[in-house]
């Protein structure tokens, strides 16, 4: 299997972000229009709703195919480092280990940046890939 390019991984993430953000925005629009809650409450709500939307939209394809919507569009997928399929426990490690800490004020943005910069190693693994022992490959 051939490793996915850095640009295809980035574009897949951008596609996923646009899809999840659009759906989350539509769902939470009434909170903004009617000014329900504080900005902090809205931010927490949008994180939780975004996570739930990501989970429900991608759960089946991530477990069965190792793909999110963006990865499917770009014909790349997540596999274990030994090139076997992915599992729910591996995907939880891959996504949750760094996702929640990335929202910690001051520390989170630095952690997210460091995570992304790891993609420049020879295996093109971000920090979350290393933790979960996964790689992203092209679908043949």
Q: How many DSSP helices?
A: 6
Strand proportion, as a percent range, falls in: 5-15%
Query: Largest beta sheet, briefly?
Result: 2 strands, antiparallel
* Class computed from helices, strands and strand pairing: mainly alpha
> What is the 3D shape?
globular
Q: How large is the radius of gyration?
A: 16 Å
Q: Helicity, in percent?
A: 55-70%
What does this structure look like?
The protein is mainly alpha-helical. The protein has one domain. 64% of the residues lie in helices and 7% in strands. It is built from six helices and two strands; from the N terminus they run H-H-H-E-H-H-H-E. The protein has helices spanning 6-33, 39-65, 69-73, 88-99, 107-117, 127-132; strands at 76-80, 134-138. Strands 1-2 form a two-stranded antiparallel sheet. Helix 1 crosses helix 2.
Keywords:
about 140 residues; two-stranded antiparallel sheet; globular; mainly alpha
Write the topology of this structure:
Blueprint: H1 6-33, H2 39-65, H3 69-73, E1 76-80, H4 88-99, H5 107-117, H6 127-132, E2 134-138
Antiparallel strand pairs: 1-2
Structure at a glance:
The protein has 140 residues and is mostly helical. It has one domain (6-138).
């Amino acid at each position: 299997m051939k490793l996915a390019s850095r640009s295809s991984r980035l574009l897949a993430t951008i596609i996923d972000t646009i899809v999840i953000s659009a759906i989350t925005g539509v769902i939470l629009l009434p909170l903004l229009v009617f000014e329900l809650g504080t900005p902090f409450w809205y931010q927490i709500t949008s994180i939780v709703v975004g996570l739930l939307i990501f989970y429900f939209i991608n759960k089946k394809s991530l477990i069965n195919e190792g793909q999110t919507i963006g990865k499917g569009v770009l014909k790349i997928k997540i596999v274990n480092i030994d090139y076997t399929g992915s599992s729910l426990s591996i995907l939880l490690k891959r996504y949750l280990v760094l996702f929640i800490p990335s929202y910690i004020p001051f520390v989170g943005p630095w952690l997210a940046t460091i995570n992304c910069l790891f993609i420049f190693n020879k295996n093109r693994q971000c920090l979350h890939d290393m933790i979960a022992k996964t790689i992203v490959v092209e679908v043949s």
